[in-house]
Design brief:
about 100 residues, two-stranded antiparallel ribbon, single chain, 2 helices, 2 domains, alpha+beta
Length: about 100
C-alpha cells in the first residue's frame, strides 16, 4: 500500500510521513566515521608516547613515536593526493586535446 500526501511540506523519512522541518536529528555516517577515527587516534597517541631518534640525511631529531607516525601518514597522504591531482590533470589535458583533433 502506498501513502499519498498532498501537503508540500511533508516528506517521507524512514517510511514515515513527517514535516519537512522535523526536529528529529540524525547523525550521518560521515560523522560516525569521524568520531570513530578521532577515538582511535587518541588511543594510538596514548599507547605510543615513547621517544624515538629519527635520522634523515644529515638531520637527526628525537620525537615521540606517535608524532613520527602521524607525520609520516600525513606525508604519505599528501603524496597520494598529489599523484591523484597529476593524473586528473593529464586526463583532462588528453580529453581537451582529443576534442581539438
Amino acid at each position: 500500500m502506498r501513502a499519498v500526501c498532498e501537503d508540500p511540506h511533508m516528506v517521507m523519512r524512514g517510511g514515515d510521513l513527517q514535516p519537512e522541518n522535523s526536529s528529529r536529528k540524525h547523525i550521518g555516517g560521515g560523522a560516525i566515521a569521524t568520531i570513530g577515527g578521532i577515538a582511535l587516534l587518541v588511543i594510538f597517541v596514548a599507547q605510543n608516547t615513547q621517544d624515538v631518534k629519527f635520522d634523515f640525511l644529515f638531520w637527526s631529531v628525537t620525537i615521540p613515536i606517535w608524532l613520527l607516525s602521524v607525520l609520516m601518514a600525513g606525508v604519505g597522504a599528501l603524496i597520494f593526493f598529489g599523484i591523484g591531482v597529476i593524473r586528473r590533470h593529464r586526463r583532462r589535458s588528453d580529453r581537451r586535446q582529443a576534442r581539438r583533433d
